[in-house]
Write a structure and sequence with these properties.
Blueprint lengths: L50 H10 L31 H13 L2 H5 L1 H35 L8 H45 L14 H26 L1 H31 L5 E5 L2 E2 L11 E4 L2 E4 L1 H6 L11 H5 L2 E5 L8 H4 L25 H4 L13 H8 L8 H4 L7 H30 L2 H4 L12 H5 L4 H33 L18 H17 L2 H29 L13 H18 L1 H21 L8 H16 L14 E4 L11 H11 L5 E8 L2 H21 L5 E7 L2 H11 L9 E5 L12 H14 L3 E6 L14 E7 L6 H9 L8 E9 L5 H15 L4 E6 L7 H21 L2 H32 L6 H12 L1 H13 L8 H21 L4 E5 L10 H12 L5 E5 L11
Parallel strand pairs: 6-7, 6-9, 7-8, 9-10, 11-12, 11-14, 12-13, 14-15
Antiparallel strand pairs: 1-2, 1-5, 3-4, 10-15
Helix pairs in contact: 2-14, 4-12, 4-14, 4-19, 4-20, 5-6, 5-17, 5-18, 5-19, 5-21, 6-17, 6-18, 7-17, 12-19, 12-20, 17-18, 19-20, 19-21, 19-22, 20-21, 25-26, 29-33, 30-31, 33-34
Amino acid sequence: MEHKGGSRRKGDGVPKENSPFINNTEHDKNNSYDGTNMALFEEEMDSHPMVSSLLNKLANYTNLTQGAHEHEEADEEEGSKKKAVKSPQMGTFMGVYLPCLQNILGVILFLRLTWIVGTAGILESLGIVGLCCTCTMLTAISMSAIATNGVVPAGGSYYMISRSLGPEFGGAVGLCFYLGTTFAGAMYILGTIEILLTYIVPQAAIFKAERKEEEVDALLNNMRVYGTCCLTLMAIVVFVGVKYVNKLALVFLACVILSILAIYAGVIKSIFEPPDFPVCMLGNRTLQNHGFDKCLKTDVIDNLTVTTKLWSVFCDGPELNATCNEYFANNNLTLVQGIPGLTSGVLLENMWSVYGPLGMMVENKKLSSFGGSDPAKDIYLPYVVNDIATFFTLLVGIYFPSVTGIMAGSNRSGDLRDAQKSIPVGTILAIATTTFIYISSVILFGACIEGVLLRDKFGDSVKGNLVIGTLSWPSPWVIVIGSFFSCCGAGLQSLTGAPRLLQAIARDGIVPFLQVFGHGKANGEPTWALLLTAGICEIGILIASLDAVAPILSMFFLMCYLFVNLACAVQTLLRTPNWRPRFKYYHWTLSFLGMSLCLAIMFISSWYYAIVAMVIAGCIYKYIEYRGAEKEWGDGIRGLSLNAARYALIRLEDAPPHTKNWRPQVLVLLNLDSDQGVKHPRLLSLTTQLKAGKGLTIVGNVLQGTYLTKEAEAKKAEQNIKSAMSAERTKGFCHVVVSSNLRDGVSHLIQSAGLGGMKHNTVLMSWPGTWRQASDPLSWKNFIETVRETTAAHQALLVAKNVDSFPTNQDRLGEGTIDVWWVVHDGGLLMLLPFLLRQHKVWRKCKMRIFTVAQMDDNSIQMKKDLQMFLYHLRLDAEVEVVEMHDNDISAFTYEKTLVMEQRSQMLKQMHLSRTEREREAQLIHDKNTASHVALNDKAEAGPEQVHMTWTKEKLFSERNRNREPNANVAVRDLFNMKPEWESLNQSNVRRMHTAVKLNEVVVNKSQGAHLVLLNMPGPPKNRGGDENYMEFLEVLLEGLNRVLLVRGGGREVITIYS
């Protein structure tokens, strides 16, 4: 037996997902399965490979560093060109632990942690650190669960979230993460420049402050100028060679670790030999130690008392009798040791917070102070003051960036030997380590450093030294240089990471306007993305204040972490079959707690930034939902939608809805042409106008044949219908059924379309315009059977005649009318439809007119009043008109029409029948003619409830009596004398034709100019013999009208006067 490699027959099915294992026939082409053991399966071998060959492929599959490539795209095109790629070899320590450590520890630790401890006090600082670290730890647990659920491709957090929460969330989170990383780059650059200008080369500043109050502005302008230069430089470095950045990463990491070790060493040394950093205090106020060397008012040199430099600052001149600042005169100068050491007991003084407004003096409350200060003059004097107003929530926002960076390991998932093992262990260990470092730092800073020095942000009181540097051993320069390089490195890494992330999102194609950023240099470097990143970074640099940029990036990272926790919680709660993480120590409550913490920290640190970040994420989400590419990644949110839908469907039990809630849930029966194109797209426009996106719409179609032979055609038909639906903005579902004949197919659709409580209650179809042509012999039979079946199923039926002349969704009909001809009441659908149509822009300007037909013995004036009252209670605006139809004699025209009709019916039948059937049919026609008179008499008793004809009970009686009157019979005889063959006509048909002709005259007379005419649709005859005649009656009834909608109620009230 030989195996046909490529051939696949219908019904074998093509698995949708293009994975590297299934469907990859390259490997199997050579193996013809000669063995007889597996002969049963050989025909399906190409789509369902043998387990042995599958395992063989799995073993050869390496988790390559695919960069931004979508991992689900099998690399089939490159099959021949694929080079041997060395499999990634990084372990947990090098691949996850160190990168995370490097990204988490950074600028805030060196530049702001001492100030946070001094301002918030040890207890509140521990609270801040605990809050932020708990948040990241919980997020890391959720992230580990997601990362160990299947092979994580390169691309890190963005891929994890987009594949588990779907493209909308993935895009929103990916862009949040991108913006966070970009602003982080700005923050690191600002940190670098702050270290450079404040501690390394203060004389390099371009903007110098002439007066003290201008210092802040001068610093910010320097940051802007130098920051922009630094950003340009870094961008060029990244553009020229990323590999150098990655090589330098270890150098930068060494700087960070050395700096931290230097701090711990300094703390230990401070126990037995504290460093000498005196702080000069005037009264209880801290002085900036820049312009003077001695903390004295007067000094004795060669037995002469001379004034010091400080005296000149606070007094009018250097003379001893000069007038001095009152506070200077009243208070003594004291030297306080800036770093009293670990055992000095300063820990207790630093326990509590000291918040204050902008410009508040940094004071030591233990020292005595005597009044006489003048706030207006104090701002010109060299006191150390708060440069921003401080409060707890601000510090949370400033501190949070120092715990971000937990994604660094998962971002390198492509380079790991065993990502599923390394990511959880490495990330959680890194967070544990950094949490320990932060908590110990908070306690040690509080225990070693004097409070006034802690609150001195830029170290002005210790000759402009970095405060954390004063503590370190062997020299402050270790920390200054170390932190400078660590900030540089972190900035460079942000500038390398962010463009790659943007490129990955762009290449996924879920955000159309980002497509341009997917392109890069020949070697795949994202050039355009780098430019955008640098541009956004520049915004951060123009803000210029580290304390203002930090909360912005906190927001974006928090949004990202929030979604990671949400993804884990959703997947766990839904118990998605594919949710089987290797990492077992997670629980949905932890994820939920992490999510709540993220949300809380967002609003704690800055409620307005939080709202802005959420709006940005929301806009991206809606944009992707509206414009984005259709991506099916088997995400959790889809599972959530399914669960919600199932829950809602079970709640919507099969009980019919209350009349107030009744709205047409439409099954549209579409016809397709021979190429599976939609024949009457206007039918879909009508559906859209009727539904306005509310309720259920199912668009059905029937193909003739068997499913196995027609499978491809059915798929094509479905595609065409879906594209027509999107073109006509019809929101709903498409359902193509293949059936042995059209009649059964339509029947199956009417019975089985929909699910549970979400079933249709109305069928919309177009009038079979070609029913008289020999080429379309079955159309009228199918049509009538459909009418019968909708009646049997208690569903309403709408038939649109001349459907191609109906307006499109873009048309706007001018002043005009929608005319409703209310002949019999079958549930009020006639009233409801114009109301629903007028909700849509197309029909909004149309007025509604209601016509009803009065018989001989009706009081038409009273009828009009009653109808107006009824409409008033229904809260519908419409003109009302009662049209009188007098019982005139049946005209010759009617008889002629009936004769032509019956002759055509006979012809129609003879075209389809074989000889034996013809004989049987002739007998039937004979029986029918004799029985019809009896049937007429029975019909009067049957009454109009069962037969939806345009007859009322009184009319039937009067009609029958009139036929019994002798003078009427005379008139009829006269007619028969004119044309003898009229006498053989079925009288029931003649009367029906009479109704059709008369009603048509009246309708055409009143409604020929209307935009749309709605009319009760008479039911088909009870006995099937008169089916062709029924079609003729309807043709006569609708003659001369342009747009008509025939309406047949479902046998229940659909409109109510009650609220």
